[in-house]
Sequence to fold (167 residues):
Amino acid sequence: MGFKLKPADKKYQDTNPEDLVFSIPHQEIEVKKEEFNPWDYVRVVNVRGEPEFQANSDEKVIIGHRGNPILGNKHPMQEKSIKERDRVIEEHKKDLEADLAVQGPIWNTLQNIAKDIVENKQKIAIECFCSPTKCHNDLLVPIIVSMAKEMLENKSNLEISRNKLKP
Fold:
């Protein structure tokens, strides 16, 4: 069974395939271990509304609105305006900073969320009515990520220490 050269292939018609030597240089291919990025595992979503702003089926839903006495913003908006939203978020930020300073209930809850992300690779959706507009829960995401990164670092350091102890 043969093949017929197309006119464009005429320049190769005198080439004997057996004379061709292909050499693929051997290269060490560095396989990068896929890094675990906690930023991909936590986000703020809307309780209702458009599907792209709601939790996905693979996400664990954490209530972040006033229905949650720990994560809910205790400062209600007096009117619907950007200025008022900024005010209540700023008030919540003060509460959050005070709680984190003493490792209070908010800190404890965020630690548990970060632990779930690190140990179970569980995706988290913090639900509120504000999202996708500015939300007090937006303050929580970088804190959770920071906590998760610290846990990963501690876990990595522990593994290194254990390996050094092995004979």
Q: What stands out?
A: The helical segments are 82-101, 105-120, 140-165.
